[in-house]
Structure formats: C-alpha cells, structure tokens
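Figure 2 data, in text form.
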Amino acid sequence: MATATEQSKRPLLRKIVGVVASDKTNKTRKVLVEYQTMHPKYGKYMKRRTVLHVHDEANESREGDRIEVAECRPLSKTKHHRLLRIVEKAPEKAVQVSAEEVMTGKAPEQR
C-alpha cells in the first residue's frame, strides 16, 4: 500500500542556475547566482548577485560547476534550495608551477 507522499511528487517551485562558489561543507554548497535588474529611477541595468546555500545529498558537485537548483522547504537556518542536476562540470584545475621550480627542477624550500 502506497502512502500519500509516494503517490504525489514534490512540487518544483522555482528553478535557478548558478555556479558553485564553495564545496567545503558536507552536503552543502554555496552557489553564486548572478542576475541583472533595472534601477527604478535611472533605468540603467545593474549587475547583482546572491549566494544560495544548496543541499547536495551525494556531494557530487564541485567548485566551479554550473548547477540547477530548486526551492524546497527549509532544511536549516540558511538552506532552502536543493540540487536538481549538474548542467556543466568545471574544467580540471591545472597544477601551478612556480618559476623557481622550473629553473631548479625542485620545489622551493620552506621559509
């Protein structure tokens, strides 16, 4: 026998696409969402951004990934969104090598 929650799917309220700014916490991501809004008096478009705390159950997104999130019930004091899908993976980070390492062939000494 199916319960009421199994029969009805959770409604998707609003879908938002943003970039993961931080993946340091477990199951939580900080997502940066940029948008433009018109100034009420001067009519000029201004760039604005907001940071959303997103629930990522499987810890599958990484910093720099472009993801789609949806509103949901409050999961904590600041977390009100959940991860829907990863739109685009971030490119792998290149290893940074200093000029001293290239010239000498070894890492710089600890100071």
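Caption note: Helices lie at 4-7, 99-104.
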